[in-house]
Amino acid sequence: MVEHLLFPLSDIKNKEEIRKIARENNLHIADKPDSEDICFIPDGDYKEFLKANSDIKEKNGNIVLENGKILRKT
Description:
The protein is of the alpha+beta class. The chain is 23% helix and 7% strand. A hairpin with a 5-residue loop joins β1 and β2 (70-72).
């Protein structure tokens, strides 16, 4: 599989050029809509992902800048 990869892509100007190459190679992904999501969180549950992959625990309290300005009261 690796022998079929082309690197780097730096001379390709935009996504449409990439899609054209994909179409020419009959890749089913060529016309897939652009993703604006994080690919490794496919279900979109960011909160659960962070809970499962972080030592940080949820805390109650205001969101406060370093200068003391309160951005959001809870």
